[in-house]
Each structure stands twice: as C-alpha cells, then as structure tokens.
Amino acid sequence: MTVSNPLVRARSSHVWTRHACMVPVVLLILWASCAAPARAQSGADWPQLILTPVVGGLQSPVHITHAGDGSGRLFVVEQPGRIRLIKGGALLGAPFLDIRDRVGCCGERGLLSVAFPPDYESKGYFYVNYTGKSGDTIVARFSVTADPDVADPGSEEIVLTVDQPYANHNGGQLAFGPADGYLYIGMGDGGSAGDPQNRAQNPAELLGKILRIDVESGFRPYVVPVTNPYTRTVGYRGEIWALGLRNPWRFSFDRQTADLYIGDVGQGAWEEIDFQAAASPGGENYGWRIMEGSHCYNSATCDQTGLVLPVAEYNHSLGCSVTGGMVYRGQDYPRMQGVYFYGDYCTGTVWGLRRAGTAWQSNVLLTTAFSISTFGEDESGNVYLADYGGDIYLLGDVLATTPTPTPTPLLTPAPTHTPLPSPLPGRGIYLPIILKAWRG
Ligand SMILES: [Ca+2]
Ligand SMILES: [Ca+2]
User: Fold this and answer.
1) What pLDDT shows up at residue 300?
2) If you measure from the C-alpha of residue 290 to the centroid of ligand 2, how many angstroms do you get, rounded to a whole number?
3) How far is the CA of 427 from the centre of ligand 1 (A)?
4) 3-state secondary structure the chain
5) How many C-beta neighbours within 10 Å does residue 239 have?
C-alpha cells in the first residue's frame, strides 16, 4: 500500500532524540538549467536547526496558526475535531472550539485546518475545513463568543461542501491570501490511488485543485472573484485557482512576498513542492496525474505542455509523504530569514528551500524521529512544527539574534562597523555587535 498522506500511517515509535544533520550537498535543484550558481542570493549559510519544545499533550495535532489579532495566541487543530489554544506559552485546558460531534475522523479525515480572515479582531468569526460524518469536505464559518478564548459550536454556517468519492486525499488546507484577502482551499483528487477518474485534470471538478473564493464580500455563502482565472471559460468551475494537484495537504503564503508554496503529496515515488509567485494571475496546472513530481506518471512519455513542474522534489528513499511548510519571517534567526521549511511525515526529515537567482536550493537541515504532520507560524513569524504524537516545537537556529543590549559604557557607542578585535576578547560581550554587523 502506498502511503499517500501525512495521516495515513500510524505514528512511528516516538524516540526523543534528534540531531542536526547538515548535509553540504544541495540535494535538489530544479530549474537549475536556467540558472547559474547554486548559491543563495544572500550568500548566507544555511541555518543549523534546533527544535525547542513548546507544549505537549495534544491529540493528533494537524494544523498550527494564529488569528492575527495581536493576542499572541497559537491555535492548534486536533484532528478529531477540536481547536486548542496556546496562550502565554501554555496549552489551555478548555478548547477554543469543539465540533467532534460532526467531524468524521480519522485516517486522512478529520478537522484539518482553521483560518482567520483579515481583521478577525473586529469580525469575530473564522473558517474551518473538516470532513463530515459522511466523508465529504465541509468548509464552514464559526463565531467566537463574548469570551475570546471560546468559540460557539452552534454558530456554524456552511460555506462549501464538496462530495468525496474516497476516504483519502481530502486536502484540507485553508488560508487567506495576504495580498487579496480571498480564501484559498486545498482540495485533493478525491482519493483511491492514481486518480482513477482523472479528477485533478478535470476542470468541471473541484477535486484536485486549489480553490479561491471570496467569503468576505457580504454575500453568503461566497462569491467567485471576477479575477479568478476561469470565470469566463466554458467547462471550468469558477472557483478554480490552480489545477493538477494530488493532495495539497499543506500550502502556505510567504507573509512578506505573498508567494504561494504548495506541498503536494506524491503517489508512490515523488514528493514535491510547487511554487506560485505572488504576481501570478492563477490557472497553473501542477501536472497530476500526468506527472508525479517532474516525472511522467504511468508512462515513459507524456505531454507536459502547459504544466508547471515543482521547484523541489525528493523520492521515496528520503520519505513518503511531504508536509508543506512555511517561510520564516521572524526576527530572531537571521539565517532562517526567507527560507521555506518543509518536512516529511514518514522520515521526520526537515528541509530548507530558498531561491538562488532563478534557481532553487533545497537542503536537508535536520532529521527527527517525529511524524511531522504540519508546520505553522505565529503572529511574529516564528515557525513551528507538530509531531502527530501530540507535541509542538519551535524551529530555531543555533545562531540567534541577541536582543539589543542595554547601553553600557562598554558598548556605547556601538562600534557596528569597527573591525573586530582578534583574537576576540570577551567574546560574550562582543557577540551582539558581531551579529548586528552581520545583519546590516
Ligand atoms: Ca477523499
Ligand atoms: Ca505536480
């Protein structure tokens, strides 16, 4: 049986060891033929990742995000149907939302993600993607109560229901575009194996696509943005933003650039990361089931006309189910800046991906014993990952930006551009200055 999604395999034995695994070889460079040197634009080194435990005790965590409301809270989706809150560094006992009574779980089904609209603080409602008891995909809106830490399970308004022909490949990601405020929805090809009804390439189907809808216009349940790529194309569903996806379990936007990164889970051989620049008008066809990664699927030759190939891929000697991640935009780790972190559910490997001119570099940065079910970010741009067994970790680099020190006679004025003394006396004292100079 082919493992095809982060949630189909039972969690591996939980070994609490991990080690940094800096692999100097650039493993995967696609588009390399049109690019010159495989070096990052910044010339910076790759980060040496460390994971810091945040909280444990969650039940099958599958999504991590924030509300963008200034509260600093982290929202963690538990697959059976609850959303938990991490507040002030602690996991609250009472859930933010509990809809286990209507969620079909588990395997690849369950409560799969939550997304907060722009200006959530004043709107007080949010969106979830879950599998109903019948197995169909449901996107719904819920409202918060007078207590900002408690949502009302009775406030549900169904936005969209998509029939699911098979139990697997349900996609599940929701995210608001940072540039357009529209809701993006990741839909898998419906399931089975090999997309037997060819749904991902069928423009009359919502399965095997990324959808883009406007849920904030005031018209319920939603409207199709007129700027969607196929609103005037006969035979195409207007909701379609991108086609040819197998199971985009996790996609995310770079909060700084609005570029879109998609982790599309492979069938039996290739796991891939797809990229869509913020300026794209949509309509990309990412190839499934014609292609698996950058390889023809089920044939030696195939027509690749009009298809968009991945910017990174790895074969099943390195994993079996990609977990799309996040671009780091935090302030604490300079070498992580702009790097897209993603992983594999089966091997626990974490990669970094970054552009180098017109080429891409993807490097193994860490090996873990975790079943990485998702990555996520907080309001400050810090990146986290979840072990499906129940724990959340913060990603960091051994090289951190030290907080600006309180001015003292020794450090004032800060000799930012002064050549460093050698050998370094009082290394601890000079470290903040070194880092400041490096960043500048
Ligand atoms: Ca399905
Ligand atoms: Ca593809």
Assistant:
1) 85
2) 8
3) 57
4) CCCCCCCCCCCCCCCCCEEECCCCCCCECCCHHHCCCCCCCCCCCCCCEEEEEEECCCCCEEEEECCCCCCCCEEEEECCCEEEEEECCEECCCCCEECCCCECCCCCCCEEEEECCCCHHHHCEEEEEEEECCCCEEEEEEEECCCCCCEEEEEEEEEEEECCCCCCCCCCCEEECCCCCCEEEECCCCCCCCCCCCCCCCCCCCCCCEEEEECCCCCCCCECCCCCCCCCCCCCCCCEEEECCCCCCEEEECCCCCCEEEEECCCCCEEEEEEECCCCCCCCECCCCCEECCEECCCCCCCCCCECCCCEEEECCCCCCEEEEEECCCCCCHHHCCCEEEEECCCCEEEEEEEECCEEEEEEEEEECCCEEEEEECCCCCEEEEECCCEEEEEEECCCCCCCCCCCCCCCCCCCCCCCCCCCCCHHHHHHHHHHHHHC
5) 21
Task: Count CB atoms within 10 A of the CB of residue 404.
Answer: 10
- The Å distance, Cα 211 to ligand 2 centre, comes to 16
Q: pTM score, two decimals?
A: 0.84
Neighbours of ion ligand 1 (CB under 5 A): 164, 166, 169-170, 190-191
Gap from CA of 125 to ligand 1 centroid (Å): 27
How remote is the CA of residue 295 from the centroid of ligand 2, in Å? 9
Q: What is the pLDDT of residues 76-108, one digit of tens each?
A: 999 999 999 999 999 999 999 999 999 999 999
User: 355: which residues sit within 8 A by CB, 6+ positions away?
Assistant: 40, 41, 361
Non-local (6+) Cβ contacts of 131 within 8 A are 103, 104, 105, 109, 110, 111, 112, 137, 138, 164, 170
Query: Which residues of the chain are under the pLDDT cut of 50?
Result: 1-43, 404-405, 407-440
Token readout for 92 is 């609250």
CA of 288 to the centre of ligand 2 (A): 5
Query: How many Å lie between the centroid of ligand 2 and the Cα of residue 361?
Result: 18
Task: Provide the residues around ligand 2 (an ion) whose CB is within 5 A.
Answer: 286-287
Q: Alpha-carbon dihedral of residues 3, 351, 53, 115, nearest 10 degrees?
A: -70
How many A from CA of 108 to the centre of ligand 1? 8
